[in-house]
Amino acid sequence: MTAPAGVDPRGPRFAATITAVLLLVATFLGLVGISTARTFGWFAYQPLASAGLGSDTWAVSSATLAQRALDPGFLLTVVIALLFLWSVLSPRTAPWGLLFRRFVRPRLAPPTELEDPRPPRFAQGVGLFVVTIGLVLHLAGVPWALPVATAAAFIAAFLNAAFSFCLGCQIYLLLQRAGVVGRAARAA
User: Is the pLDDT of residue 140 over 90?
Assistant: First the structure.
């Protein structure tokens, strides 16, 4: 099995920069939204309602499915998940790659070397998996699931954007060494 044509390594870093910014905003919205909010009953604060601790509940647990789905952090994370999915299914037409190829790359010197496109594509799949878990858990009413998932994806995107360290690519390479991905099918 031959490796596919290489990609400019600056393209995935460019995409990771935009993705990191979106994930940072989604994390902030998740932190100030219903994922982390507490409710204290029918009124904002009832100091004499109960003497025990823990009488309050998480807002996301008591919210309806529609309220969870309309949370701004959730909506932005859905958009981010769709962008991840687009990058996995059709990297040539994904918006950040297209933006890089049309407007950024022509202004740069040619790359000194090209890299295998499979690890960055796998990394997009890992990002999709992480934010999808956060979305599903948020819809299920799990407190903190959404901001934790977006923060984890943000860390990975930031490492790629700032330090050119692609965490998902490293996972791909480990799985490739283990023979799980990226190997040619053997003849029977």
Answer: yes
> From CA 13, how far away is CA 105, in angstroms rounded?
12
Q: Are 46 and 149 in contact (CB under 8 A)?
A: no
Burial 40-69 (b: 16+ CB within 10 A, else e): eeeeeeeeeeeeeeeeeebbbeebeeeebe
Predicted confidence (pLDDT) at residue 110 exceeds the cutoff of 60: yes
Among 60, 22, 18, 13, smallest CA distance to 151 is for 22
- Residue 178 CB neighbour total at 10 angstroms: 9
Q: Measured at the alpha carbon of residue 159, what is the angle toward residues 164 and 178, in degrees to the nearest 5?
A: 80
| Helices and strands, number each (H, E), in the chain | 8, 2
Do residues 38 and 59 make contact, with C-beta atoms less than 8 angstroms apart?
yes
CA angle at 105 for the pair 104 and 111, rounded to the nearest 5°: 140
Rounded Cα gap, residues 85 and 94, in angstroms: 9
Question: H or E stretch including 135?
Answer: helix 118-139
Say how far apart CA 37 and CA 39 lie, in whole Å.
7
Percent of the chain's residues with pLDDT above 90:
78
